[in-house]
Amino acid sequence: MTATVESLGIDRLSVRERLDLIDQIWDTLPDTVSADEIPSWHVPILEQRLAAIQANPDKGRPWEEVLAEIENKT
Fold this sequence. Notes:
By secondary structure, the protein is mainly alpha-helical. The chain has helices at 15-28, 42-55, 63-73.
């Protein structure tokens, strides 16, 4: 049986509870995955993003810096 939002009761959670659940699930994901675990439709998007990073290596900011800025605004 495939787990669904309905079968797991996720559809009955509040928005805040669902966001918390997403955060918990995200934290369980490994830092790296093998190529066979990546959906084929992700590959072109990942290649585009990697090319953009390589073309502009100084563009962007570290995630920790962005997160700190967001936390300071709240």
